[in-house]
Each structure stands twice: as structure tokens, then as C-alpha cells.
Amino acid sequence: MKTGFHSMLLLAALCVGAFALSGCGPDYTTPEGTVKAFHKAMDADDKEAAKRCMIKAEREEKKEEGGNVTVTKKEGDKGTWSVGTATITGDKAKVPVTYVKDGKSETANFVCIQEEGEWRISMMATIFGALADGFKGESKE
Fold it and tell me: Helix, strand or coil for residue 80?
């Protein structure tokens, strides 16, 4: 009887441990999960984790450049961010991220691409998309 109880206790402990570990890693199964993982990595100044959120071609490019991901977060930046719902079209998605600092908010769309069943961020597409959005907002004279 004692052995059965200890076995059940051990099994329960293993299940709890496995569940806890499975929830610790980034969620690349959704575009929103990937964008959240990227922002958490940036908040923690974890360049390797941020790089893992990018598409393969950009990770390889960073490897050739010495592996650095440029962190745009400024010292003392106490702003917040929130990830919205992705708009998915095939293997591409746009994920809105709203940044709030000093009472002002701004939204940027991150472009994600599905690679090998997982979602990754294309920083180049994100940057070019932001530039294109900026041009759309300018008045033509």
C-alpha cells in the first residue's frame, strides 16, 4: 500500500513538473505567441532568444554579422506593450503591437511567416511595412 502511494505521488510530481516546463518556453504555434516571445526577450535584453523568434534567413544573416540583434529599447524605458489579434492570410500574418509610454500610444504591425509549422517574425517585412504605412499617412501636395 505504501509503495502504491509513493508511486502515485511520484507520478503526480512528474506530471506537475512536465506541465510547468512545457509552459516556460516560447509559443511559436501562433503569430501572437511569437511576437510576445520576441518582446519578452527584448525586455530581458536576451538577444539570443529574440533572434530565435526571427525567420531562418534573418537568423542566418545575424549569425554572419556576429549574431547581434539590435535592441532599440532605451535605458529607463518604462513603457508597456500589448499584443493584439493576428490577421492571418495563408502562411503570413500581421500582428498589431500597441506601445504605451507617458500616456501616448502607438501601434506597429509585426509581420510573421510560418516556417516548418512554426511562426517567426520577419523584421525586414515589419520594417518595410511600417515605412509603407508611414507613406500612406502622409498627405500628397
Answer: strand
- Residue 18, C-alpha cell as written in the block: 512536465
Q: What is the pLDDT of residue 66?
A: 57
Q: In the predicted model, what is the mean pLDDT of residues 26-33?
A: 95
Predicted TM-score (pTM) of this structure: 0.71
- The count of domains in the chain is 1
For residue 7, what pLDDT is reported? 43
8 Å CB contact between 119 and 93:
yes
Domain containing residue 127: CATH number: 3.10.450.50
Nearest-angstrom CA–CA distance, 58 and 116: 15
Q: Which amino acid is at 69?
A: V
Structural domain boundaries, residue 105: 27-137
